[in-house]
Amino acid sequence: MSNPDVNREFSEFGGRMKVIAILTLISVVIGIFTGINASAGFFDAVIGFVVFIFYILILGDIKSAGVMLNNRNLLSFRSKIITSFILGIIGMIIFTTGLAGIGITIFFIGNLILLPIPVTIVIIGIIVLLITAILQIQAWGSLESFFTNNTTLFPQEIANDARTGAKLCKIGAIFDITVILMFIGDILRVIGYFKLAPLEYLEHTSK
After folding, report:
1. How far apart are CA 44 and CA 31, in angstroms?
2. Is residue 180 assigned to a domain?
3. In angstroms, rounded to a whole number, what is the distance separating the alpha carbons of residues 148 and 145?
4. How far apart are CA 66 and CA 9, in angstroms?
5. Is residue 126, in this structure, part of any structural domain at all?
6. ∠161-164-166 over CA atoms, to 5°?
7. Is 114 part of a structural domain of the chain?
8. Structural domain of residue 58, as residue ranges?
9. How far are the Cα atoms of 1, 84, 89, 160, 168 from residue 92, in angstroms, in the given order?
10. Residue 100 lies in a domain
11. Residues 101-126: what's their mean pLDDT?
């Protein structure tokens, strides 16, 4: 890569993506072997928080690289990931509020006439979460397009791995929409993250 500053940004992106890959893999393994319990939930929450912090860092790397290269795909990736995070939080709050409302209406109030209200809230939450998944698909698609259209900026093997990694993350987001296949989406994301990780070697690799 000819620009050492861009080189550094992608190298940091790759190194941080490796951390995200490892933490996500640990989270998936914990989910497989422990199921749903208090301790697993606590560790999952801690891992999720750390992953969120690293996502903020990689989005900073992508923004810097996108500005330096004046590349629309990189900047689109960043903006859509940020928007999806915000909508994801809002969607989960709305969805869980609706579920709680259904439980309260059925078991405590006992007036089923009011049931359509929390059900509507749940539906709104689901719609917001679907929009979140669509934004994730578009975001990873933008990153895939960047690596597809700019292969000359990278060593061929790293470019191919990065393009494949972004594609796998995009497919993982597609599986999220199905809900019942989200586990497959998690596995594809882990593989995709590891495929993006070799970008960390750019500072030590000449094209």
Report:
1. 8
2. yes
3. 5
4. 10
5. no
6. 110
7. no
8. 4-83+133-204
9. 41, 12, 5, 35, 24
10. no
11. 89
Backbone φ and ψ of 154, nearest 5°: -125, 160
Judge whether 186 and 7 are in contact, CB under 8 Å.
Answer: no
Q: What CA–CA distance (Å, rounded) separates 172 from 176?
A: 6
Task: State how far the Cα of 55 lies from the Cα of 130, in Å rounded to an integer.
Answer: 21
Evaluate the CA torsion angle 11, 13, 16, 17 in order and state its sign.
negative
- Tokens 């960047």 belong to 146
Confidence tier at 1 by pLDDT (50, 70, 90): very low
| 39-94 residue pLDDT tens | 666 787 888 899 999 999 999 999 999 999 999 999 999 999 999 999 999 999 99
Tally the domains of the chain: 1
Whole-angstrom distance, CA of residue 34 vs CA of residue 43: 11
The sign of the CA dihedral 67, 70, 74, 77 is positive
Measured distance CA(200)–CA(181) in Å, rounded: 31
CA angle 43, 45, 49 (to 5 degrees): 115
The token pair that represents 118 in the structure block: 């929390």
Q: What is the pTM of this model?
A: 0.88
Angle at 56 between CA 146 and CA 38, to 5 degrees: 120
- CA distance linking residue 34 with residue 86, whole number of Å: 29
Q: What is the DSSP letter of 174?
A: H
Pairwise CA distance, residues 121 & 141, whole Å: 30
Residue 5 exposure: Cα atoms within 13 Å on the Cβ side: 7
